[in-house]
Structures are given as C-alpha cells and as structure tokens.
Amino acid sequence: MSPRRVSENVVREVPLLRSQAPVGSAVQQLLDSGEVALPVIDDRERFAGVFGEREFLGALFPGYLKEIAYAGFVPKGLEEVFEKRAQCATDPIAEHMLTEHVDVGPDHSDLQVAETFIHHRVLITPVVDEGRVLGVITRTDFFRSLAASFRDSTA
Description:
Blueprint: E1 11-12, E2 17-18, H1 23-33, E3 37-41, E4 47-52, H2 53-60, H3 79-84, H4 110-120, E5 124-129, E6 132-138, H5 139-154
Parallel strand pairs: 2-3
Antiparallel strand pairs: 1-6, 3-4, 5-6
C-alpha cells in the first residue's frame, strides 16, 4: 500500500473555461464559482492553461504595468481604465491565460504539487490525465492539509 498523500483529499471539481470564451464571461464564471482561477480547455477539451485573478488583471490593465516599478502617476480612479480597456471584455481568454506547465498528473506526489506552487506562483494546480482536466488543487487547500499533517506529526 502506497503512503497517503496530503493532496489526495483536496482535489476538487471546478467549472472549465473554454479558450475562446470572452474575458467578460470568464470573469463572471470565476465570480460564480468562488474560485481564484479556473482551468482552460481548448476545442478538443484538452487542458490549455489557467485563467484567474492575475490573468484578468493583466487583461484589464495596460501591459506597461508589468514593466514599471512605481504606478503612483497612474490616475486613482478606474473609470478611465475601464473606458480605455473595455474591449478586453470581448477578447478571448486564450490571449490572456497562463500557458505555463502548471498541472500535475493523477499519480502526482505532494512534492510535485509543492514545487508547482513554489516555483510558478500559481493559485491552482490542475490535475490532468492524458490532457483531460480531472480537477484542481488550490494552494489554500493544499496549505491547510499540509499544515494539519505537519501539526499532527509533530504533536
């Protein structure tokens, strides 16, 4: 019998976003799901990336914000940003999603999950089997499970 993984009980099913879905509807699905990010699938229903809070911010705010160290000169109100970037609501999320390899397989180890959260700074790690999304592990759920196991083992 193999040792039990901390991450076993934290894989959850979530809605999947389609890569050609517009940013506006993807943001609504994020809000409706209560998740911070969701997996994106392509036309063949294969894992294609992740779209979440960070990707939405990248779609909404001008690209130069990634390059500057200080944004104090930017207007305080968002009305101007919303006006200038309103078209991003119709952009396909494929233009803004994270396409880095941030998934793990169904036989993943807890170390693989930890490495993904540490090195890629993502909020979810999709569990993918032969291109199909089985669910996700959220960083918060993994942390809580890991912390509880650590506490129990050192008590």
